[in-house]
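Case study.
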Amino acid sequence: MRAILLLAHGSRDPAWKAPFERLRDKIVARAPAMPVENAYLEHTAPDVIEASRRLVTRGATAIEIVPLFLGPGGHVRSDLPRLADAIRSAHGSIEVTIATPIGEADSVIEAIADYCLERRG
Amino acid sequence: MRAILLLAHGSRDPAWKAPFERLRDKIVARAPAMPVENAYLEHTAPDVIEASRRLVTRGATAIEIVPLFLGPGGHVRSDLPRLADAIRSAHGSIEVTIATPIGEADSVIEAIADYCLERRG
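After joint prediction, the assembly is written out as follows.
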């Protein structure tokens, strides 16, 4: 079974993660059978190892990491391949893939443009 | 004339800003008469003072700052009001407002959910 790991940066501020959890809830509401978990690089729990453990417990045999980053910085280019390897090491035969970050998804940038244009007043 | 200042975090990586510039281009394509500029908090030029100067030069009398942040951290809560004040001080009578960050826009989270669900394979 395919699963999604929603990866964001993390923050010392406990309120920071709310939009990412709302995103997970939206996905779960539309695809209730698919395991979906949030994970964070820093400060915020769970990390990718704990999140992937939860996905595997729910039957995941393939995990797609979706990087919730608009700008493609060092986190996306160097941390992500390393984290994917860490998940593979932790869970034997699992297939781990990394999606294109959301900042490169035209539909996402289009939705942000719509939001900005609504603000013209 | 109303103008939009697209505020993002910034990065030492010169490639990081590409999605934010693509966003600006999309908005300009759809509303060519409206002044729109990118601005960054750290590392990446221009900063908000330089970006707002460009907007005022193009005739802006009101600037809406759109925070391109998904998670509402310290940058959004404390830096933004301070930056809005700095723009007001730099440009006398200009009206400066701060939009709700994109992470709190339901349409944006919905577009990211769509993108994730397309990845189910």
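Observations recorded in class. The radius of gyration of chain B is 15 Å. The beta strands of chain B are 2-8, 36-40, 62-67, 95-98. We will return to this complex in the next lecture.
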